[in-house]
Amino acid sequence: MSQLQTVQDDNVPIWLPRLAAQGGPRFLQIADALQAAVADGSLKPGHRLPPQRQLAAQLEVDLTTITRAYDEARRRNLLEGRGARGTYVAAPKVELTAIIDLSMNTPPPPDGVDFDDLLKQGLSQVLMRADSELLMTYHLAGGSDSDRKAGAQWLEPMFGALDSRQVIVCPGAQAAIAAAILALTQPGDAILAEPTTYPGLRTAAIQFGRRLIAVPADQHGMLPEMLEAACRQHQPGLVFLNPTLQNPTALTMPQRRRQELAAIATRCNVRIVEDDPYWLLADAPPPPIARFAPEQVYYISTLSKCLTPGLRVAFVLIRDPHERGRFLAALRSFALMVAPLTAALATQWILDGSAGGLMEGIRNEARLRHRMARDILAGRYSGAGDGLHVWLELPAYWNSSQLAHAADREGIAVTPAEAFATGSASVNAIRISLGSIKDRGRLQAGLQRLSQLLARRPEAFSNAVV
């Protein structure tokens, strides 16, 4: 790594890294050198750093490199700006809360991927190639031609080559689910789902005045015979399924079950909304249900769950042009379009390969974290080894709500089974999300504390008074 020289300037020490030709991006070398100087005490809180132009001249690099290095150091909470007085070494950041959040399903930060650089490069390419006025004006719902082509390319691993006109670009999967409900159902209509399912479905169903009805499931997913009986009894507007690494159970529906459910949907002429955010993160998943009943299924694939939550882009595959029209009309009633800049960034990343590289890094990181969870949680771990979460069934002396409250007192956030219940019945389990903690060490500490908590009985917490 770079070595440091300590130089006096008006009695204030400054650092000067020696940049290595093979040491990686220069801005990161500079930020790393600064971090090392703070760590070993060469630089202390309150020390003023040289102006960016001066440092650029001393290191014989361009000003942009220094700007990026200082930005990176600020991101690491190493620096603080004081207006015209300059840039100073920041005081250590005090964590006001030690909460370890295992409740939010987000992709983990991939090791070896400089996300900040990826974002800046992607936006730079977008701004270089696109008319800025077009990025800041209204667009037709459903996405531009290039956005839909990017969507078709994103869906190619699931479906092979697609007609991009069949792909609709939406501002996230939740918007797509809401639009599907509006397009396919009327107030009071039934929506069928598994007994534990994505909470966003329940939220939308309640807001729109639809009835959410649970269809029994086994370890392979929704039971075909029970789906057929429910279709005949309730005449549902749609069936909601999340067949790959299901949220929250992390189960993946086998191909035969998918084919059986697709056949029933065709026979009963009911539409399936297949929410499939984790297919690309799974290890050799079966083909989507939409492959077995193309005309019956609205297929949703979001980038938020496999790349980054801030990329509010989802692709919806609807084969029938009339159905696409109904869906677009419903979508326009509450979300005119995806933010053009966001859509353009997603398209840029997909077409230049950045999205694929980022997702591969996230997939590898997720599997590493699953191995960590399996080792720490021992016999309680029942995950699939991939995806973003673990469904942890609890010992009989805990119930899920009680455990979630106890974990919260220990500084750990988890999600109890009640949050996912379609009906009144619920299994005794919690969902543990493995991606929302950036630092693996903190994740490991949180899992260890949770494992220790699970081994204790709730009576130990009942008499606490503060």
From TrEMBL:
<dbReference type="InterPro" id="IPR036390">
    <property type="entry name" value="WH_DNA-bd_sf"/>
</dbReference>
<dbReference type="InterPro" id="IPR015424">
    <property type="entry name" value="PyrdxlP-dep_Trfase"/>
</dbReference>
<keyword id="KW-0663">Pyridoxal phosphate</keyword>
<keyword id="KW-0238">DNA-binding</keyword>
<keyword id="KW-0032">Aminotransferase</keyword>
<dbReference type="Pfam" id="PF00392">
    <property type="entry name" value="GntR"/>
</dbReference>
<dbReference type="InterPro" id="IPR051446">
    <property type="entry name" value="HTH_trans_reg/aminotransferase"/>
</dbReference>
<feature type="domain" description="HTH gntR-type">
    <location>
        <begin position="24"/>
        <end position="92"/>
    </location>
</feature>
<dbReference type="InterPro" id="IPR000524">
    <property type="entry name" value="Tscrpt_reg_HTH_GntR"/>
</dbReference>
<protein>
    <submittedName>
        <fullName>Aminotransferase class I/II-fold pyridoxal phosphate-dependent enzyme</fullName>
    </submittedName>
</protein>
<dbReference type="InterPro" id="IPR036388">
    <property type="entry name" value="WH-like_DNA-bd_sf"/>
</dbReference>
<dbReference type="InterPro" id="IPR004839">
    <property type="entry name" value="Aminotransferase_I/II_large"/>
</dbReference>
<keyword id="KW-0808">Transferase</keyword>
<comment type="similarity">
    <text>In the C-terminal section; belongs to the class-I pyridoxal-phosphate-dependent aminotransferase family.</text>
</comment>
<dbReference type="GO" id="GO:0008483">
    <property type="term" value="F:transaminase activity"/>
</dbReference>
<dbReference type="Pfam" id="PF00155">
    <property type="entry name" value="Aminotran_1_2"/>
</dbReference>
<keyword id="KW-0805">Transcription regulation</keyword>
<keyword id="KW-0804">Transcription</keyword>
<dbReference type="InterPro" id="IPR015421">
    <property type="entry name" value="PyrdxlP-dep_Trfase_major"/>
</dbReference>
